[in-house]
Amino acid sequence: MRLEDMVHDVRTPLATAKGSLETVLKHWHELEDAKKLELVSRALLAAHQMEFATERVGHQISHNTRTGGPRRPELIDLSIEEQEGPATAQITLKMSGEALAGTSESKAALRTDPTLASRATLQALEPLLEDPMLLEEAGVLQIGEAPFAVVRIRREDEVLIGSALIESDLHLSMARATLDAVNRFVTRPRRKTLTS
């Protein structure tokens, strides 16, 4: 990826977000509520685009400097299987060259269970989290035209919220929203030591 492309990938959504928010602030009393919501939704969508662009830049820098991979878990694979009975989510994450796997099963044959991928993601992250995390809620939030996967996770007395734009796959977006919520608490994989 060229530096010019990286700059473009950040500048374009930044201009969209800035323009939308400036319009809302400048014309707040003149705008209909629907138009305000549309402009704020555009700004949020642009913020997500900037986030994805900066993650790509981070991955590129990490690759170029050969530091051992990204500092955050990378989603490698997610599959949802539905046979007779409950649906099962299997996720594979990668961090610092180590694979992390998690599995979750729905209570019924619900392929549409929004918590399925989130629970599998939290299970995969267990070796990297110093404190236990509890998924309290997962769902879809519609902001203007854009649907977002949103999760609420409890860590001791703290509530963590994560979100991801749903581009095509609900489960993939739920896994990304879960990573968004807990990423700041992820540590390097702990090596298990053998005691004699």
Structure description:
The chain is an alpha+beta fold and 196 residues long. It has helices at 3-26, 33-65, 115-125, 170-182; strands at 74-82, 87-95, 98-105, 134-143, 146-155, 158-165. The strands form 2 sheets. Strands 1-2-3 form a 3-stranded antiparallel sheet. A hairpin with a 2-residue loop joins β5 and β6. The protein is globular and about 55 Å long. The chain starts with a helix and ends in a 14-residue tail after the last helix.
User: Approximately how much helix is present in the residues?
Assistant: 40-55%
Please provide the count of β strands.
Answer: 6
Oligomer: single chain
Report the CATH topology name of the largest domain: Double Stranded RNA Binding Domain
Distance between the termini: 49 Å
Strands ordered across the widest β-sheet:
1-2-3
Concise synopsis of the structure shown:
With 196 residues, the protein is of the alpha+beta class. The protein has four helices and six strands, in the order H-H-E-E-E-H-E-E-E-H.
List the helices and strands and how they pair.
Layout (H helix, E strand, L loop, with lengths): L2 H24 L6 H33 L8 E9 L4 E9 L2 E8 L9 H11 L8 E10 L2 E10 L2 E8 L4 H13 L14
Antiparallel strand pairs: 1-2, 2-3, 4-5, 5-6
Helix pairs in contact: 1-2, 3-4
What structural keywords apply?
196 residues, alpha+beta, Helix Hairpins, Double Stranded RNA Binding Domain, 2 domains, three-stranded antiparallel beta sheet, 4 helices, globular, disordered C terminus
